[in-house]
Amino acid sequence: MIKLNTLKDVDLENKRILLRLDLDVPLENGQIVDDSRLVASLDTLNLLFKNFGNVIIAGHLGRPSGFDQKLSLAPIASWFAEKFQGELTKGRLGEFDGWKIKENLFILENLRFYKGEEENDPAFSQTLASLADIYINDAFAVSHRAHSSVVGVTKFLPHYAGLRLEKEVSVLSAVLENPKRPLIIVIGGAKIETKLPLVKKMNSFADTLLVGGKIAMELKDVLSNKQDQLGEGKSKLLIADSDDTGKDITQKSAADFSEAMENGATIVWNGLMGVVEEGFEDGTKIVAQGIINSSAYSVVGGGDTIGYLAKIGIFDKFSFVSMGGGAMLEFLAGDSLPGLEALT
């Protein structure tokens, strides 16, 4: 397992702490729809406050090109103000706009409003780092991005993994290094280009590999054109059929997936089986229930997936819910994540 610098032996008292969190939560009409990623940050925040740390929260929302009021972190700042019983006051810290929530808590405006963030610009990184004495990354979901607030600041500050990030790495490393078997991997979603590396990896590693969603159709095309595209397979590979609409998997495929999961000891799931935002959710519900009904240790991740599980009220039925989407996929595919490498 990757060895991270952790908070175990760090003196946090009266330190100014730059805390990178995953603030990229879904909004509708300016209101937070799913706060799972924010809730996941609370253990680290409570630890910092317990040790009298002065916390500066940093993060992003969406993919803005310059300033975009619709992607302001104001709703997220309000969420933290309510959670910690603070008063929200718009202000400025160094060269950054943001909000003062309490004497020991400030949240910076969306870092992606600044060009230097995604460019990992050294000057921008240094300006950001100048706000604090210590840097903590507790945003696993962006740790596959070599951005200033993820990688660049570590060159200027002592740097550590937050409690949530440490837990993510521990759980996912166990899946890769010593999973209880049979290991069953369930992959869905719509982006074959992002999921194919994981499909290839798990085809040679998992005991059973179940592929649904839009990528199932695309994977069938890939395999029909080049049978060895996935390399030498160890797993039992099941690829779902699509229903007549092309927007969900068939009831039979969903039932076959559930049957395959009955004897699993570890099940990892990333990606929806259908276009749930348009009401095509039957396949996803059946697969989710199949995982819940099994006695397996279950790990689920992906922004759309966890958002849906929270919406239908079964979020807490899984053993571990990863806050990572692309980061989870890349980690399980064996890729090196820049944000994690920066913390070693």
Structural domain tally = 2
Distance between the ends: 11 Å
Largest beta-sheet characterization: 7 strands, mixed
Order of helical and strand elements: EEEHHEHEEEHHEEHEHEHEHEHEHEHH
Note poorly predicted spans: none
Number of strands: 15
Number of helices: 13
Instruction: Average the pLDDT over all residues and give the rounded result.
Output: 94
CATH class of the largest domain: Alpha Beta
- Rounded to an integer, what's the Rg over CA atoms? 21 Å
Q: Which percent bin holds the helix content?
A: 25-40%
Mind explaining what this structure looks like?
With 344 residues, the protein is of the alpha/beta class. It folds into two domains: 16-165, Rossmann fold; 179-332, 3-Layer(aba) Sandwich (Rossmann fold), CATH 3.40.50. The protein is 34% helix and 18% strand. The protein contains 13 helices and 15 strands. It has helices spanning 36-39, 42-50, 74-83, 115-119, 122-129, 163-177, 192-203, 214-225, 251-261, 282-293, 303-311, 326-332, 338-341, and strands spanning 16-20, 27-28, 31-32, 54-58, 89-93, 96-102, 105-108, 134-137, 159-161, 183-187, 208-211, 236-239, 266-270, 297-301, 320-321. The protein has a seven-stranded mixed sheet with strand order 5-6-7-4-1-8-9. A six-stranded parallel sheet has the order 12-11-10-13-14-15, sandwiched between helices. Helix 7 runs parallel beside helix 12 (326-332) and helix 9 runs parallel beside helix 10 (282-293). The longest helix has 15 residues, at 163-177.
